[in-house]
Amino acid sequence: EAGVTQFPSHSVIEKGQTVTLRCDPISGHDNLYWYRRVMGKEIKFLLHFVKESKQDESGMPNNRFLAERTGGTYSTLKVQPAELEDSGVYFCASSQEGPYEQYFGPGTRLTVT
Amino acid sequence: QQQVKQSPQSLIVQKGGISIINCAYENTAFDYFPWYQQFPGKGPALLIAIRPDVSEKKEGRFTISFNKSAKQFSLHIMDSQPGDSATYFCAAWPEPENSGGSNYKLTFGKGTLLTVNP
Fold first, then answer.
1. Interface membership of A40 toward B (CB under 8 Å)
2. Best CA proximity match to A86, nearest among A34, A31, A36
3. Does A98 touch chain B (CB under 8 A)?
């Protein structure tokens, strides 16, 4: 069974540019999550989808971040325009039922210069 | 404010030794406590988890000890091996603050970088 995949693995952009991160969850997992870890800090929740519906966006930093989940399959997280403080590792996770056993992808390391 | 406090930040252990990582929390609403293991270049992987109704859970060389009254839980790695070298995160669910959403979010500690020397 394929795990959670994320693309790209690394992205370096300049302040003010736009970046789109992609996540493909484990097949059959209705729950999809985005988390972020800033260097040396804890992994922080960004948002939660059930299928194509956003269930919880409480962790989204501001309106420069936009997440979508097309047809309840893959998800994208767009940052526009990017700021220096957006740098970090963005993780996607998925779970089949409930919040338990969340499987994480390898992450996208975003560097904003 | 940090909901889950993890210590130490880094830990060096000799092969065959016991690695101990501690986490503490404040809010008694937490009901599920997983530990995640992350190797460089990989995402966090669920290692072991515990609910508050038991004081200990063991899976192979990994044991979670849970102290409900002290609001603390810890991960013990027995007979630590160089292959155990990784970053370990404790986490808790559900988050006490009700955001009005699904509240499926995990609350993580800051992580512990474990190095096991051969």
1. yes
2. A36
3. yes
Regions in chain A scoring below 70 on pLDDT:
1
CB-CB neighbours of B83 under 10 Å: 9
User: Is the distance from CB of A48 to CB of A31 less than 8 angstroms?
Assistant: yes
* Contact assessment for residue B74 and residue B23, using Cβ atoms and an 8 Å cutoff: yes
Distances in Å between the alpha carbon of B115 and those of A104, B19, B34, B47, B63?
22, 9, 21, 17, 18
* Whole-number Å distance between alpha carbons of A84 and A111: 8
Token pair for B19: 């690695």
Locate the chain A residue with the closest alpha carbon to B40.
A106
pLDDT tens digit sequence for B7-49: 999 999 999 999 999 999 988 888 899 999 999 999 999 999 9
Judge whether residue B104 has pLDDT over 70.
yes
Plot region of A63 (φ>0 → left; ψ -120 to 50 → alpha; else → beta):
alpha
Interface of B with A in 4-63 (CB under 8 A): 4, 32, 34, 36, 41-46, 49
Whether the per-residue pLDDT at B99 is higher than 60: the answer is no
